[in-house]
Amino acid sequence: MAHSEGIVPPTVRFYGWNPPALSIGYFQSISEVDFTALQSKHIGFVRRPTGGRAVLHDQELTYSIVVSESHPDLPSSVNESYRVLAMGLLEGFRNLGLSAEMITLGTEAEQKRHESPGSAACFDAPSWYELVVEGRKVTGSAQTRQKGVVLQHGAILLDLDVDLLFSVLYFSSVKLRERLKSAFRERAVSIRQLAGRTVSFEEAEMAFRSGFEAGLGVRLLPGELTEREKQLAAELVRTKYGTADWNEKR
Predict the structure, then answer these.
(1) pLDDT tens, 186-214?
(2) CB-based contacts of 233: which residues, under 8 Å, 6+ apart?
(3) Which band of pLDDT confidence, cut at 50, 70 and 90, is reported for residue 110?
(4) Which of 6, 49, 139, 145 is the most interior residue, by most CB within 10 Å?
(5) Catalytic residue from among 33, 120, 122, 188
(6) Does residue 31 lie within any of the structural domains?
(7) Do residues 68 and 3 lie in contact, with contact meaning Cβ atoms separated by under 8 Å?
């Protein structure tokens, strides 16, 4: 909103979550969430304004990009804009010594190779121009467009607790939970698993900041939230994202 009002320039943000929280996609049903488990584990909950499936925001670097739809370097189509913005992610992984590749789902064979086993969790199948390393999904992104502005955000997994994720999702049987959990482990991976070491939030932020600069051909300047943005954030929590009407709407 602040960008659409001309208050701030195109912006890339990196942030983390404290305490951890489960977010579900805009169209996802809350029937897929085990709220009793969330409460017992002191994990927050929110519905995203973008699509996709459940993400446990815990040991990750989260990024968001806000840019005008009319920006000359941003393609008008959703898929092509994903491709352009994913170049920043690609370079970020390279900065960490990881060989990521973009997924295109243009052929039936590619679609079949990456099709989802059907769990409520994100990261079990990549979308167009998302990134995989050794065939496994390492980041999940989603995009929405409002008031002439593109918001793309996503989770970059520093580490991954699959048991915790699946413990806060609802399944009709233990057998189904274990089957989908096993399939998920084969399709999702964290930076720690790939690098064979712990990558700190600060190291990852530095890698992806320079990655976005190289991949998008821009220079990122440090900044702080304006007073208008802080006011908007508080207002949105109070009237939208912190309300049952929004979070439990489906």
Answers:
(1) 889 999 999 999 999 999 999 999 999 99
(2) 225
(3) very low
(4) 139
(5) 122
(6) yes
(7) yes
Mean pLDDT for all residues in the chain: 88
pTM score, whole prediction: 0.86
> Domain holding 85: CATH number?
3.30.930.10
Would residue 241 count as lying in a domain? no
Q: Does the pLDDT value for residue 125 go beyond 80?
A: no
* Beta strand extents in 5-134 (DSSP E only): 11-15, 21-24, 44-47, 55-57, 60-68, 101-102, 131-133
Length of the chain equals 250
Question: What is the residue range of 15's domain?
Answer: 11-225
Active site residue 210: no
- Burial group, residue 223, by CB count within 10 angstroms (0-12, 13-18, 19+): exposed
Residue with tokens 């960490």: 96
Q: How many domains does the chain contain in total?
A: 1
In a domain, 237, yes or no: no
C-alpha distance across the termini of the chain, in Å: 25
